[in-house]
């Protein structure tokens, strides 16, 4: 199978490229220069040249706070890009799997979010991702959308690496305690994505199982890294950010589980990740 992966330089893109290569797939890892998903003529040229059977769109503008001011960029990459890919994939009868986010939800529910729950994003990042889903599905009913959350992988720009860096220079770290979600290891997400390529098209929620707050996530990181740094819980109100975050963005896995796809607990995934990154036993 020939697999084209957009956003190949991101932490999920890198994981997917490595995984599919190891399993013998022909992989086309494309960065934003090699495939500008906001330019439909560029998309046409690349798809005609490479002729993949599967497109995985892992490209996104994920800087949540910057999306509040760089609105045009957020809409171009997160909304128009998926629409163009869905349109051109349909023309060529190529399978498209698009990565979306837990931030399409308001966070007001006390229950994990199901695929059928109403999208009500509270920040521009979430709004741009919602629009991307809607536009893509309107033009192509055969696509697969995977919503995931709190990603970390083999990249220096994720929450785990940030906590480690801060722990090396500080005695204490302040982390919000009133946002609930689920950390997701890109390796575990990648395995689920591969399985979903064989599943019926539709929307699927995929993250590691279990849930925690950012404070609990940070505390677990310090524990596994054997760092003495104290993690201090604070409220979102105290930790001022440009964009609002959902209070609860835990995703329900019932639909995924019904297909026989089960993802391990986030603490197990984190333990393996830290061991692979730094050799710490945890």
TrEMBL record:
Family: Belongs to the dTDP-4-dehydrorhamnose reductase family.
Natural source organism: Priestia taiwanensis
GO BP term, pick one: dTDP-rhamnose biosynthetic process
Leading EC class: oxidoreductase
Record-listed E.C. numbers: 1.1.1.133
Keywords, alphabetical: NADP, Oxidoreductase
Protein name: dTDP-4-dehydrorhamnose reductase
Keyword NADP attributed: yes
One Pfam assignment: RmlD_sub_bind
């Amino acid at each position: 199978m020939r697999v084209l992966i957009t956003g190949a330089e991101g932490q999920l893109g890198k994981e997917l490229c490595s995984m599919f290569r190891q399993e013998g797939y022909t992989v086309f890892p494309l960065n934003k220069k090699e495939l500008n998903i906001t330019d439909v003529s560029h998309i046409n040229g690349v798809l005609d040249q490479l002729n993949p059977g599967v497109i995985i769109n892992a490209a996104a503008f994920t800087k949540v706070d910057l999306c509040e001011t760089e609105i045009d960029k957020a809409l171009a990459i997160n909304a128009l890009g998926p629409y163009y890919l869905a349109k051109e994939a349909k023309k060529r009868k190529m399978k498209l799997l698009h990565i979306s986010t837990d931030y399409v939800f308001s966070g007001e529910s006390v229950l994990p979010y199901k695929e059928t729950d109403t999208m009500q994003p509270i920040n521009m990042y979430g709004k741009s991702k919602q629009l991307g889903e809607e536009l893509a599905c309107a033009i192509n009913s055969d696509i697969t959308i995977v919503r995931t959350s709190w990603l970390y992988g083999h990249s220096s720009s994720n929450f785990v690496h940030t906590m480690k860096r801060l722990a090396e220079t500080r005695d204490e770290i302040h982390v919000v305690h009133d946002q609930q979600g689920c950390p997701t290891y890109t390796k575990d997400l990648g395995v689920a994505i591969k399985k979903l390529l064989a599943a019926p098209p539709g929307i699927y929620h995929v993250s590691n199982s279990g849930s925690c707050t950012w404070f609990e996530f940070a505390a677990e990181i310090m524990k596994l890294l054997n760092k003495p740094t104290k993690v201090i819980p604070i409220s979102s109100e105290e930790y001022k950010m440009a964009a609002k975050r959902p209070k609860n963005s835990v995703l329900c896995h019932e639909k995924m589980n019904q297909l026989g796809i089960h993802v391990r607990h986030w603490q197990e995934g984190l333990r393996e990740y830290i061991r692979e990154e730094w050799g710490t036993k945890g």
